[in-house]
Amino acid sequence: MLTQTLIQQVVRAALAEDAPWGDLTVELTIPESLTLQTQLVAREPGVFAGGALVRETFEQTDSRIQVQDLVADGTPFAAGDTLAVISGPARGILTGERIALNFSQRMSGIATLTARFVQEVAHTRARIADTRKTTPGLRALEKHAVSVGGGSNHRFGLSDAIMVKDNHLAALGATDAESTTRALQGLRERAGHTTSIIVEVDRLDQVPAVLQAGVTGVLLDNFDTADLVRAVALIDGRAIAEASGGVALDTVRAIAETGVDVISVGQLTHGARALDLGLDAV
């Protein structure tokens, strides 16, 4: 969850990384009394995210800086649009410029890519979800960007839900249908009735054994569309049908049309390109 405390911590760490002993350039070239007015401008179209990080960056560099007309996260924009007006002491604005841009460019890139995926499947029942393939330390920011782009958040981390993958089953010695069902039933009993259990399968013949254990969801990993259709029919509403693995913009529509409930897409966070935004003096 993107809390104010986390925002402050992340911005503080970013500024400490960028200017651990101050900004030598502005201290030696920019008079302390100089003021500046700038605009955050889009160089290309997209969906905005990261406004709270922009505001907090300038608050920490100099609390006298004003951030005005900042568009809300989730706002679509066109190339040339002004997304915020930042004015005040020039030293603070110039010191915080790159950090504010890094956050807003990265998060807007994720929101924009997510919106494109969501649009591709809008005619189906499928939801687009993120994964744990995030930048270490920035997961809350990146998952927030997915949300404002119209996507859904998968589990935030390992503490949120149970997801049993092939290596978990291998470690338990679950090598056939009977042992797989038995292992998952034991897990179900230990987990309690409120905990979600999602189980990854990579073959169609694994689905019945997983369903027999009464799991919450079945993650269909790297299935082709024909097998996804068969798997959805086998699941028949008894669990959430989730498709994952190798999902791209040019394949997600066909995947969604198989009838799956969720499509998890690692590319949303680990493959998104930073959007081209700039801070221009006016």
Helix and strand topology:
Blueprint: H1 4-18, H2 24-29, E1 35-42, E2 46-47, H3 51-61, E3 66-68, E4 76-77, E5 82-89, H4 90-120, E6 127-129, H5 139-148, E7 162-164, H6 166-171, H7 177-191, E8 197-201, H8 207-212, E9 217-221, H9 225-235, E10 240-244, H10 252-256, E11 262-264, H11 267-270, E12 277-281
Helix pairs in contact: 1-3, 3-4, 4-5
Model description:
- The chain is of the alpha/beta class and 282 residues long.
- The chain has two domains: 4-118 and 273-281, Alpha-Beta Complex (Aldehyde Oxidoreductase, domain 3); 123-270, Aldolase class I (TIM Barrel), CATH 3.20.20.70.
- It has eleven helices and twelve strands.
- It has helices at residues 4-18, 24-29, 51-61, 90-120, 139-148, 166-171, 177-191, 207-212, 225-235, 252-256, 267-270, and strands spanning 35-42, 46-47, 66-68, 76-77, 82-89, 127-129, 162-164, 197-201, 217-221, 240-244, 262-264, 277-281.
- A six-stranded parallel sheet has the order 6-11-10-9-8-7. A four-stranded antiparallel sheet has the order 3-5-1-12, with helices on one face.
- α8 links the parallel β8 and β9 (217-221).
- α1 (4-18) packs across α3 (51-61) and α3 packs antiparallel against α4 (90-120).
- The chain is elongated, with a radius of gyration of 23 Å.
- It starts with a helix and ends with a strand.
